[in-house]
Predict the structure.
Amino acid sequence: MRSLNLAVLALPLLLVACEERGSGIYVGGSGAVADCDLGLDKLNDTTWVILKVNPDKTEEPDPHARMKFSVQDGKYSVQYNVGSLSDVYTYGCEKKADELTCREEPRARDWCQALLVGGGECTSEVLKTYDPTIPDDELAKAVEEAKANVAKYQNTPDWKQFELNNNNLGNKLQGLLYVKVDARKCRLRITDNYMTIYNGKRTEDSNPVGTNPFVKWSGGELLWDHCKDGGDIAPTHLAEYPTDLATVPLVREATLGEQVDFWYLGQDARTPVEGCKYSYDLWFDGMNPQRGLTPDRVDVKGGQELRWHWTHTWSEPNKDGTQLAGTTTMVRHWTCADATKSGEEVSCAAVVVK
């Protein structure tokens, strides 16, 4: 199943590309902070969220765009949701002077494909200029696979669509973060970009978060699981298990104060396996976890089935007056006597709350 690739509704999308890193939008008040000891060397195991400016000019930390830093053996990394409702990405970081540059894992084959479709040259040497850390054998394989895929579509009715998919400014080929310390206000200044290749040339463009201040988060635990299943949770008004799973009436929109019933309907989680115990955790808008919940077991023809059901009501509107994208994330766990059969899965669903 796919995850919910939706950006936070309240964040503007910047679509103008540039050859160099763009400045994006910078917001925030002007008050200085005394005695700030914040530094890049103090980011390990810290969580940061965007500082949102409301229409009345008040500011508040907003965990809808969040990141968490780690440092191991001197190497920095960051988990970052890019303002998404359901996706969490891990970037590796490199420290140079007073800035961290963080990048998603390279996708050399996709880079090569975009170069070729856009009229550029793709060789291992060219790809090395994009990322010198990629091993030579991986680069050679990427070039071979990309050329074969391009040849597969050339001179076919599907070429125009293939060309559009691989040569457009919205083709996000690598997420990029630039992290600096704003010592005057004791916070981070984050520039959130992505790399693409257009007409055979590397460019950077701004992700929805743009360039903004991030402040340290102390408001409770946040979600860092990446949703891999965006189709098996059904938001409904059904308090009872659906009688016909092929025609479940889904709730796409809800009003503030309206209860929504959620049913997990994935086929791979209906029949309990002997020797396994089942539980799940729930997150709403990436916060306020409910842990250790257990599904019901019901008798059906031929044995038993698991029933995963919960309710939620959104009661607080967005302060900026925009629609709220209400998200629910479920982390299913199954722990078995045979440890090789244990595991977990992250599923999610979203409704628009008005």
In short: Residues 233-353 form a domain with the Immunoglobulin-like fold (CATH 2.60.40). The radius of gyration is 23 Å. The chain is about 10% helix and 40% strand. The longest strand covers residues 201-216.
